[in-house]
Design goal:
about 15% strand, 3-stranded antiparallel beta sheet, Arc Repressor Mutant, subunit A, about 65% helix, single chain, 4 helices, globular, about 120 residues, alpha+beta
Length: about 120
């Protein structure tokens, strides 16, 4: 496999690994009400970079699933859509966080037993 193919494979797997964690990151960040841009900035500051083309469809999907509530407000002479966890979203966040912690602990145990060398 060429270096280019290897890099493409790694990027594909990296994106797949991140995909599920983005939902948890968004839900956790919306314990405090935010609008889209401020949420994107907060996620970035926490090390979770997300393109607008990923964030906004995800917000709409989470809202349609009843996990988020939103409302339009005028702020600084512009209408902004503010998002926050719904009661259902709070319950789901707690459940997903517990699942994440358990999975993360299991993976840490497995990885600590493996001699990993980056790039090997």
């Amino acid at each position: 496999m060429s270096e280019t193919e290897e890099a493409l494979l790694f990027e594909s797997l990296r994106l797949e690994l991140r995909r599920g964690s983005l939902i948890l990151a968004v839900l956790a960040s919306l314990k405090r009400e935010q609008y889209g841009y401020s949420l994107r900035v907060a996620l970035g500051e926490a090390g979770v970079e997300m393109e607008e083309s990923t964030l906004y469809p995800l917000l709409r999907r989470l809202e349609s699933q009843g996990l988020l509530d939103s409302e339009w407000r005028e702020e600084e002479r512009r209408k902004k859509r503010f998002y926050r966890l719904s009661p259902r979203g709070e319950v789901m966040l707690a459940r997903l966080a517990a699942e994440w912690r358990g999975l993360s602990a299991s993976l840490e145990t497995m990885l600590s037993k493996t001699d990993l060398k980056e790039g090997a």
